[in-house]
Design a protein that fits this description.
Blueprint lengths: L1 E3 H11 L4 E4 L6 H8 L4 E4 L3 H15 L3 E5 L3 H4 L2 H9 L4 E7 L22 H5 L5 E4 L6 H12 L7 E6 H4 L2 E3 L19 H13 L3 E5 L1 H5 L3 H11 L3 E3 L14 E4 L7 H9 L2 E5 L20 E6 L13 E4 L2 H15 L7 H12 L14 H13 L5 E4 L3 H6 L7 E4 L9 H11 L4 E6 H7 L3 H6 L4 E7 L4 H10 L14 H8 L2 E5 L2 H10 L6 E7 L13
Parallel strand pairs: 2-3, 2-4, 4-5, 5-7, 6-7, 9-10, 9-12, 10-11, 12-13, 13-14, 15-16, 15-17, 17-18, 18-20, 19-20
Antiparallel strand pairs: 1-8
Amino acid sequence: MKIPVSEFIVRYMERLGIEYIFGMPGAHILPVYDGIYDSSIKSVLVKHEQGAAFMAGGYARVTGKIGACITTAGPGATNLVTGIANAYADKLPVLVITGETSTYIFGKGGLQESSGEGGSIDQAALFKGLTRYNRIVERSDYLVNVLNQSSKILLSANSGPVLLSFPYNVQKEMIEEALLERVVARHRTPSRDSRPPVVDALLALLEQAQHPVIVAGYGCIQSEAQEALAQFSTRLGIPVATSLKGKGVLGETAALSLGSLGVTSNGNALRYIVDHADMLIFLGTGFNERTSYLWDEQLLANKTVVQIDHDPEQLEKVFKADVAIYADIREALMEMLNKVEANGTRAKQLNHFHEFSKKLRQGSAELHTVVPHAKFALPEKFFARLQAHFPEGAMIFDDNIIFAQNFFKVSGGNRYFPNSGISSLGHAIPAAIGARFAENKPTFAILGDGGFQMCCMEIMTAVNYALPLNVVVFNNASMGLIRKTQHKSYGQRFIDCDFVNPDFHFLAQSFGIAHLRIDNESDLDTLFSSYDLVNAINLIEIVIDKNAFPNYDSRR
């Protein structure tokens, strides 16, 4: 039996396990939308296509499953660019379906044509550097091959966005339904070499080290290695610092947690590593600009360096390791734990760590020098209350980053999603909405007032689908990072960093949601005692001083 290509595409997405597809219809993609009408896939109408891409990324990031978005040709596709770039940088499995004008008008100047012919927009070239794979499918006779290549990437450990564009007439072509059986739509688990000799070499180096430190990253979360990491750290007495994306992979209230490492952090992990560590074990972290303090040589100087990663492209990308292991992080940790137990390996002495921790508790290590208490009391108290109110089960999507990195201790039960990727403004709200479709948990989108005005229209998507969401806006009527840099490096020659905000109370009222402006600590009492932060949509405005600046240097 033959079915339209449009239906074949929908059936393919069902086989991939896609549950939601975020987007906005247009004439050139309506055949696929019509196929979705009778499918198990739920379509979500967004307010802007960029929001669709961020939602698909948020969904993929929370679930580990394939996120999906769909748009029409031309501007529908071009509006996706930033969100797809973000997914590419974060290696998120996102399937992008776009429409296209019919092939028989390619090069003739068709409305919204993106074929690259006759001077039209070349969509394939536009997305070439932002996707792992992208194709305009001009014929149905090789569709199975294209879909298998897409599956290979979407289902791989080293994933990323895949974009498939279907001309209108191709969507209407008929294709044999039985060909679906030739399309790969499930993970294939490759055989893995556990490489015991390399692991043995690592353990031999660990035996010699006096003060090792683990630096754990997002790869630990992807490998679901949280419990194995906690066991390994505790059994061998090894303190753990995390990257920003790995924040909370070891609960930050744990006895051996050093918190997160990075240029916008409080610096505690940096000080301990520089002053005391003689060995660093990198687990699933890329040692990027943030984590490495712009690749500060002090971090690695005079230290044995070990790296374990499930992505071979990350191994020794920015530093030379004494031992580099390509392996699943959880499996590697469990293998090492088994060998540690079999060998009766002793835990490390923690005298230096305990003394360091004591100084921190006494305040003698100059806590929070990056974000001083007095200047940012309200954000600090907000995150302390949030941590106490939701000790577990909350999802936090954070575009602001600096306050949470310093003031919010992520427990093992909460999940923290910083705006990593390409660090684009306008990310938190749509990404949180995408996640909220997947998980029924208290959800917070945290961002500055500059980024808010790039994506606030997507609050209506949450309203339209009755999705509970807490939007937290830090209101200083400025682009804070730009203003800080112009203050510090350009003699306070402020230009294009200040602006007038809308009245957030009336804006929330127009959305039909609750609003609270927080000017003092008693307002925080009201927020956590009187507002429904689980089942309602809230716009929470926290006022901060535009002339209060963090102390870190954001320049290269």
